[in-house]
Amino acid sequence: xxxxxxxxxxxxxxxxxxxxxxxxxxxxxxxxxxxxxxxxxxxxxxxxxxxxxxxxxxxxxxxxxxxxxxxxxxxxxxxxxxxxxxxxxxxxxxxxxxxxxxxxxxxxxxxxxxxxxxxxxxxxxxxxxxxxxxxxxxxxxxxxxxxxxxxxxxxxxxxxxxxxxxxxxxxxxxxxxxxxxxxxxxxxxxxxxxxxxxxxxxxxxxxxxxxxxxxxxxxxxxxxxxxxxxxxxxxxxxxxxxxxxxxxxxxxxxxxxxxxxxxx
Length: 264
Known about the structure:
By secondary structure, this protein is mainly beta. It folds into two domains: about 10-90 and about 185-264; about 100-180, no CATH class. Helix content is about 5%, strand content about 40%. It has helices at about 20-25, 80-85, and strands spanning about 10-20, 30, 35-50, 60-75, 100-105, 115, 125-130, 145, 150-155, 165, 170, 175-180, 195-205, 210-220, 235-240, 260-264. Strands 1, 2, 3, 4, 13, 14, 15 and 16 form an eight-stranded antiparallel sheet that branches. The radius of gyration is 28 Å and the shape is elongated.
């Protein structure tokens, strides 16, 4: 089929999978959601041999090779898997199921935020008691439940200050609540792990299909994670394209890449 337009502007899905699991066929490529940037940058090594036979100088020969290839990927979808990838963490969407939590002990000071171990379901009752269980405290008078599900002790309420024993604060309240289903990411728990990457989309200039695969990419952490800001948070990742030695190199007449393929 003749190509009538050589301009390119891609739109579509970027998908990732753990390289080891994908290579073994135990995991599939999962779309990362809206990704405004997918870019490959090549770094070149140039070696010049000066021409010593000529008074004019110059180069007798030049060797140019690709030294490294980098991938830039920007994610606007802050799902748990993307955050775990960007923050070298572990966790997945919905990995915390709904469950009842009884008498979680906390050290609570007046005015201080007291995060709970899990995300509470704010549509269900939250009960705050003394550690002895003999006193139940009153929401709005003795404490507040914050927008993020933490407990905040109010000044002038009935909750006493915690005692300190040998330099350690002792729990002065217990909190019982219904844990909401949520995603929990444990931060900075691992090193960088290789992933397989695929782009499945279309060239919007002429509606041609596009398929782009990188067999093995190792991303660094996100450059930043904006928690409070004027703009929607983005995860900006940079990775290195690595050789996949499980792929065939083909023959000199019909070579195959061990890095990736581009079909347009």
